[in-house]
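Structure ticket #2291
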Amino acid sequence: MAKLIIDGAEREYDEGTKFEMVAKDYQAKYDDMIALLFENGKIRELTKSVSKDAEIKFITLHDTIGHKTYVRTAIMTLVKAAYDVLGKGDINKIKVEYAIGQGYYIEISLKSGPLTQEQCEKIKDRMDTLIEADRPITKRSYPKDEAIRLFKEEGMEDKVNLFKYRRSSSINVYCLDDCYDYFYGYMLPSTGYVKYYDLMQYEDGLMLLIPSRQEPAKISYFEPREKLFNTLKEADEWGTMMGIETVGDLDGQVCSGMIDDMILVAEAFQERKIGELAKQIVERGNVKFILIAGPSSSGKTTFSHRLSIQLRTYGKVPHPIAMDNYYVGRDRTPLDEDGKPDYECIEAIDTDQFNEDMTRLLKGERVEMPEYNFKTGEREYNGTYLQLGEEDILVIEGIHGLNPKTSEKLPDESKFKIFISALTALNIDNHNRIPTTDARLLRRIVRDARTRGTVAKKTIAMWPSVRRGEEKYIFPYQETADVMFNSALIYELAALKQYAEPLLFEITKEDPEYHEAKRLLKFLEYFIGLDPRYVPNNSICREFIGGSYFKV
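Resolution: structure written out below.
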């Protein structure tokens, strides 16, 4: 018998009892489905068994780790259903592409032609059958060479390519009936756990709808985000053209000695997009305010500098304006739900003063511009004046740039709105996408340590609050932008790797951020690091790793 401490009380279980049975004994006490658990602080899947005395804490779908486990299980169930309905012989590729709201876009490429609505409906029916049958999902550790041989037989060359560069001597393989797969992360014990989902045909593939972490038992209405989808699709198509769709492809480029050429091509592509954007702004005419908004670590500062340079080639005179200079005094900053200053909310910005200053500038008046003193928490006026001439343009950067309240008193024809984010199109393999939030978090960890002396555990601890602010104040306005710009670089995670790893290794098991640090370290293991000397000094990547031409 083993003694388990659960919810502060001791209870005995026979050794060998599945944690799934333990979870079922306590499920009624939890509002949300139990997905995983901590055994003495270590994450365990429910398929594992009781083996010793331990303290147990349950992880539900409301927790980020639990929610991601649910998503992976739903994806494997969908892949199995697609194989059953379409037949492996007709499938060129099933690729989990990107997240759009609560949906996951999945491309299914068939030898026989485009995916049809009828096929989509049959896949959903098959998923329902698999879920009702509650088919078990088992895990087995294979020696690396054996795993490579297995996936080669399954025709999954993306996984073969990925494992070729893995240092680990063994690979965890999941099995659902006759379907073998690899997933970066934990899984639920069976298909029956996927109680809430929906599936719809979308563009050339499928949209798998999953409940949010906040409401894990509710499927929300899917709102198409065309600009976001098209921006992600463009990045994905460019990666395909370059022959770099997965991490294994990128690792191959690094090992081939051709990575310096690939970096130059990636940077040239991004510079071309910035140049096209500058041309579009100039050709519109009457634009006096370029409003740039985007989530944390999207590269807004470097982008604004590079856009300004391109505007100068058209004879324009750009002036950078940081919306942070319009923060209200620290003592007047609203508090968040935890009673801490909420610098992310729109009320933290003096929008009235901003609109007044911008309106006066538009009229040609000479205006003294504020500077926010982050040490004193007050706005200051230090004799910096600005007056707009015929060719002058203000390049305004701030997270609330697209919020209508920010520029409500400015005429629409004078504004050009840009949404910028690091929309990573690179996949680990076809069934394991890289969340754009992971790339941004790694960017921020590296930059915060370099520019602010902030340790990684503090950046990770702050990240949930940052993400809440983005979901509430930034993303709702992204589709109102005139243009969406993708600041992600296909090679950047290989460049960030050697900067991020030492910072993450400083986080100890005693720290609450340990499990997230461990997850990120495991993620970075997939990448072969590249020499940062190849990264140009005007690159957006330099905003994070250092060595930029610009003051960032």
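Closing remark: The CA atoms of residues 326 and 354 lie 7 Å apart.
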